[in-house]
């Protein structure tokens, strides 16, 4: 019973554990975040995004930066499909677990950065499929040894390797098996306690070595000596970091490098005393050391150099000192005691040393000096005068002088101090306070390179030497350039206020022009054609006006059509105006025909509109639309006039005539001789005698007789129609051809169908045979009326005239008869 109870408890527990394990294993991609910050070069920057897992990124990516996130593990599926990836950075995460096959699909990977993570052990299976890997960074992870079997066994193409960190304690022979040659080796082993001599000795050739051996230099001289002995070669630059060199003992490991005849040594981030420097010189006495560099150094002591004045260092060629802090600086009153050392070097650099003067006597010790760099110090015009001995400097072989980043203000003073340096070719005066330039200057005739960038210049004068081949005036306040420099090959004008390119005629030999970050609106092919030898142009980050001329031209230059090549980023050429294109890359702009060919577009549009208008006019003319409009306007105007007369209380009766007769002037004889006498002066017929009824005379309205003189003809016609019960049309060929008859016919057309006239208001008399087709087509209702209404036809036989007149009278008296 007890076993059965345990089974009941155990079974649900196993099911729960199985479900938890399954939920951890089945983590689909749709739960992973995505990153789409990839540029046109397929370089994806997904750093500083707070990812806890490797995000989903396009499998076409060539570089992937996942640095400074919170990624703790890389699973087997996170990087699957990234066969084209060339560089992967996981620097600065909390990476503690990497699946053994996580990188297997990265066949093309050349750079891998796993530094600054939480990897406690390294596994050779991570790198077993990375045959193309060239750069590997494993710095600052908490592993104590490289592990076994050798981690780098299959990396035959590896050229840059960095490993180690605060936890590294042991290096053994075979740890770097498979690594045969390196261009750069970096080892952080400040806490190294066990080292098998020869562990680093099999790497050859070895380009450059950087070692951090803080504690071994202080507490384990033999170990530090063994490490240095394995990596010291005459042509291999040796960089030693994080050292504390105080007395003689701390310098002893350097004997190993001295015995290997090393020629290049750099001390970086070190604390050193004058005593240690003396011992350093003793250690390398007679050694062909050619370059000694100190970067980020704190110097202490009292400036006692005399104990080393017996040493021999004729091979010293270059001294490089940067970012130096001197404690108790008042103790270091003079460097004259270093005269035995300063007489040899040809290159001396003192950068950011807070030096405000180098006495003329010290300058005189630099007998072989050809290169002097005093940038980022505190030199003023007066202290520079002391440094260069008031224009009589003993530095007669000086070729390069860099005094950038100081507190100099007078360009006249500088040119006066250097004019006698007859071999000077390069002069760097950048990052000083020059606000103006003299109108004329004298310079060494050998001067070829001049840098006055990041000053405050507002104008250029003929002070500039015409011998210049390279001129850097970037980051000033210049707006134009009119000086002819026939020998100039490179010109740097970025960061100024140029509105247009300087004329190419000023620089017949110019090959490179950089004019980025100005206020250029545009440039064209004719501007570039003035630069006869220009090959490289950088003009991005300006305020381009994307006009119809500029956009096609620049797009052709971007595509490489032409003699000039744009060597900066295509994305830096961005439209600033017009407003709707602001921010658009010029290479992607597509302008419409309306914008680029406005005159042609307007001309074509006007031509098309005129053509359409002509077609419409022809169509309206064929459909008699103009006539309808004309008649409608005349009808409305006449009707308004008629109403105005009625409104004034016209005494005339509304219907004054029995009929208004419309006829052609050529038919006037028939009207006057037949129609008027017959209707206005009727004769009694036999029928009238029988009926004892005398025929009532009819009143006719004739234009000759009844139209008011001085009144508009249209008003007369309208008035006559309104005051007549009927309208009689005497139709003939003459009628159709008569303009006035057509007017009357037109207005009768409106009157008939305006709603005021009766159904039989129009009476048609045909003097001669006339079909309805002879009536103008625009009078379609009259044509219809002619086809549907019986009309009177003047008889050719005299015996039928009586019947004609009787029918006409009956038609005119129709309303009375009805009454």
TrEMBL record:
One of its GO terms (cellular component) is receptor complex. It is found in: Membrane. SMART domains: LRR_TYP (SM00369), TIR (SM00255). Keywords: Disulfide bond, Glycoprotein, Immunity, Inflammatory response, Innate immunity, Leucine-rich repeat, Membrane, Receptor, Repeat, Signal, Transmembrane, Transmembrane helix. Disulfide bonds join 38-44, 360-389, 441-463. Belongs to the Toll-like receptor family. One of its GO terms (biological process) is innate immune response. Cooperates with LY96 to mediate the innate immune response to bacterial lipoproteins and other microbial cell wall components. Cooperates with TLR1 or TLR6 to mediate the innate immune response to bacterial lipoproteins or lipopeptides. Acts via MYD88 and TRAF6, leading to NF-kappa-B activation, cytokine secretion and the inflammatory response. It comes from Dicentrarchus labrax (European seabass). It holds the Pfam family TIR. The lineage of its organism: Eukaryota, Metazoa, Chordata, Craniata, Vertebrata. One of its GO terms (molecular function) is triacyl lipopeptide binding. Coiled coil: none annotated. It is a single-pass type I membrane protein. This is Toll-like receptor 2. Gene3D superfamilies: Ribonuclease Inhibitor (3.80.10.10), Toll/interleukin-1 receptor homology (TIR) domain (3.40.50.10140).
């Amino acid at each position: 019973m007890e076993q059965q109870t345990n089974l009941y408890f155990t079974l649900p527990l196993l099911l729960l554990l199985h479900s938890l394990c399954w939920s951890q294993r089945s983590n689909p991609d749709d739960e992973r975040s995505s990153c789409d910050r990839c540029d046109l070069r397929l370089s994806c920057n997904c750093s500083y995004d707070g990812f806890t897992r490797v995000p989903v990124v396009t499998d076409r990516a060539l570089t992937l930066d996942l640095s400074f996130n919170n990624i703790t593990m890389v699973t087997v599926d996170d990087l699957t499909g990234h066969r084209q990836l060339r560089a992967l950075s996981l620097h600065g995460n909390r990476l503690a677990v990497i699946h053994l096959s996580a990188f297997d699909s990265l066949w093309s990977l050349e750079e891998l950065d796993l530094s600054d993570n939480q990897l406690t052990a390294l596994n050779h299976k991570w790198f077993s499929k990375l045959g193309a890997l060239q750069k590997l960074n494993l710095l600052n992870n908490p592993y104590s040894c490289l592990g076994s079997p050798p981690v780098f066994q299959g990396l035959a193409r590896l050229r840059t390797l960095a490993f180690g960190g605060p936890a590294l304690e042991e290096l053994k022979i075979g740890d770097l098996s498979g690594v045969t040659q390196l261009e750069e080796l970096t080892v952080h082993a400040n806490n190294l306690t066990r080292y098998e001599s020869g562990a680093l000795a099999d790497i050859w050739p070895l380009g450059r070595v950087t070692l951090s051996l803080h504690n071994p230099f202080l507490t384990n001289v033999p170990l530090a000596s063994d490490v240095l002995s394995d990596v010291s070669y005459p042509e291999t630059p040796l960089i030693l970091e994080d050292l504390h060199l105080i007395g003689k003992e701390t310098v002893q490991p350097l004997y190993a490098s001295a015995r290997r005849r090393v020629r290049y040594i750099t001390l970086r981030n070190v604390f050193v005393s004058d005593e240690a420097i003396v011992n350093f010189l003793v250690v390398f006495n007679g050694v062909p050391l050619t370059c000694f560099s100190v970067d980020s150094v704190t110097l202490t002591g009292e400036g006692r150099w005399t104990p080393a004045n017996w040493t021999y260092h004729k091979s010293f060629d270059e001294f490089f000192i940067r970012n130096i802090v001197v404690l108790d600086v008042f103790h270091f009153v003079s460097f004259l005691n270093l005269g035995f050392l300063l007489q040899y070097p040809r290159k001396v650099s003192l950068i950011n040393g807070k030096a405000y003067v180098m006495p003329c006597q010290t300058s005189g010790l630099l007998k072989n000096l050809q290169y002097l760099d005093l940038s980022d110090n505190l030199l003023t015009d007066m202290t520079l005068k002391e440094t260069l001995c008031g224009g009589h400097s003993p530095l007669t072989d000086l070729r390069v002088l860099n005094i950038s980043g100081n507190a100099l203000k007078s360009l006249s003073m500088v040119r006066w101090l250097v004019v006698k340096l007859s071999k000077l070719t390069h002069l760097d005066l950048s990052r000083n306070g020059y606000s103006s330039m003299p109108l004329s200057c004298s310079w060494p005739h050998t001067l070829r390179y001049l840098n006055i960038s990041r000053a405050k210049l507002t104008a250029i004068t003929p002070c500039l030497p015409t011998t210049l081949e390279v001129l850097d005036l970037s980051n000033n306040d210049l707006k134009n350039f009119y000086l002819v420099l026939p020998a100039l090959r490179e010109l740097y004008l970025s960061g100024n206020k140029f509105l247009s390119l300087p004329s190419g005629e000023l620089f017949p030999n110019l090959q490179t022009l950089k004019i980025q970050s100005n206020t250029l609106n545009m440039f064209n092919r004719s501007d570039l054609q003035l630069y006869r030898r220009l090959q490289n142009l950088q003009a991005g980050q300006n305020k381009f006006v994307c006009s119809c001329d500029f956009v096609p031209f620049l797009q052709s230059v971007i595509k490489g059509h032409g003699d000039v090549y744009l060597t900066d980023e295509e994305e830096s050429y961005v439209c600033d105006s017009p407003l709707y294109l602001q921010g658009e890359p010029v290479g992607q702009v597509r302008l419409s025909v309306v914008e680029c060919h406005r005159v042609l577009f307007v001309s074509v549009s006007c031509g098309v509109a005129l053509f359409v208008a002509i077609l419409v006019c022809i169509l309206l003319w064929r459909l008699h639309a103009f006539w309808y409009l004309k008649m409608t306007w005349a009808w409305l105007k006449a009707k308004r006039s008629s109403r105005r007369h009625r409104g004034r209380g016209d005494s005339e009766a509304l219907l004054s005539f029995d009929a208004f007769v419309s006829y052609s002037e050529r038919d006037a004889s028939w009207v006057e001789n037949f129609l008027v006498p017959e209707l206005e002066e009727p004769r009694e017929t036999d029928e009238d005698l029988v009926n004892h009824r005398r025929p009532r005379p009819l009143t006719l309205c004739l234009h000759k007789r009844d139209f008011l003189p001085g009144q508009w003809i249209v008003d007369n016609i309208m008035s006559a129609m309104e005051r007549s019960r009927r309208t009689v049309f005497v139709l003939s060929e003459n009628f159709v051809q008569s303009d006035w008859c057509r007017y009357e016919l037109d207005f009768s057309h409106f009157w008939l169908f305006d709603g005021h006239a009766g159904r039989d208001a129009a009476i048609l008399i045909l003097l001669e045979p006339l079909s309805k087709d002879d009536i103008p087509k625009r009078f379609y209702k009259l044509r219809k009326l002619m086809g549907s209404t019986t009309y009177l036809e003047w008889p050719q036989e005299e015996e039928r005239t009586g019947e004609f007149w009787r029918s006409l009278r009956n038609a005119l008296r129709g309303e009375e008869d009805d009454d």
